[in-house]
Q: What sequence folds into this?
C-alpha cells in the first residue's frame, strides 16, 4: 500500500488516541479535585478573629484580676483526658472567694466545643441562668452537649461578670 506524505501509520494513530484519552482523564480528574477542594473549603480565619484581637490586653487584665481575687473554674471535665462520643452532660463550677457574691443573672458564660483540625463541628453554647445553680456561694454550671465525632476536642469555658473575665480550656480525646 502506497502512502502519501500526510498519512499516519496505525500505531501513531493509536498512540495519539491514547494520549488524548489520558489527557482528557487528567483534565476531568483535576476538575473533580478542584470541585472537592472548593466544596469543602473552610475560612482561613476564625469568624471572630478580629473581635478577639481588639480587646486582647483588656481580656488578659480582666482574667488576671479575677484570678487575683480568687475566682477559679473547676470541674471534672478539666481533669479528664477522654470523653465519650454522643450526648452527655458537662458540669463545672465557678469558685467564688469568701466575701464575694455573684448571682446567676449577673454572669454571662459560653461553652465552646471545638475540634482543632476543623471549624465545621464547632459548637458555641450560651449558658442560660436556668443552667446555673448556686451551691455554697459557688456557681455550678451544667449543660447537655453532643460530640458528634471522634478525635481531639477543645473544651473552652469563657465568661464574664462586670469587669471580671473567666476562662478555662482543656483538650480531650473523644473515642
A:
Amino acid at each position: 500500500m502506497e502512502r502519501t506524505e500526510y498519512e499516519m501509520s496505525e500505531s501513531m494513530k493509536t498512540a495519539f488516541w491514547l494520549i488524548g484519552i489520558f489527557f482528557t482523564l487528567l483534565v476531568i480528574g483535576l476538575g473533580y479535585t478542584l470541585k472537592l477542594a472548593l466544596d469543602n473549603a473552610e475560612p482561613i480565619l476564625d469568624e471572630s478573629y478580629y473581635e478577639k484581637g481588639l480587646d486582647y490586653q483588656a481580656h488578659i487584665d480582666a482574667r488576671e484580676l479575677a484570678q487575683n481575687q480568687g475566682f477559679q473554674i473547676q470541674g471534672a471535665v478539666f481533669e479528664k483526658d477522654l470523653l465519650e462520643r454522643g450526648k452527655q452532660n458537662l458540669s463545672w463550677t465557678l469558685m467564688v472567694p469568701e466575701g464575694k457574691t455573684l448571682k446567676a443573672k449577673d454572669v454571662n458564660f459560653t461553652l465552646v466545643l471545638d475540634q482543632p483540625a476543623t471549624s465545621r463541628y464547632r459548637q458555641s453554647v450560651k449558658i442560660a441562668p436556668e443552667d446555673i445553680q448556686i451551691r455554697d456561694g459557688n456557681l455550678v454550671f451544667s449543660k447537655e452537649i453532643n460530640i458528634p465525632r471522634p478525635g481531639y476536642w477543645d473544651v473552652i469555658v469563657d465568661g464574664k461578670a462586670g469587669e471580671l473575665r473567666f476562662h478555662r480550656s482543656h483538650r480531650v480525646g473523644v473515642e
Observations:
- The beta strands are 72-74, 82-83, 86-95, 108-114, 123-127, 132-135, 138-147, 151-161, 164-174.
- The chain has three helices and nine strands.
- The chain has a mean pLDDT of 87.
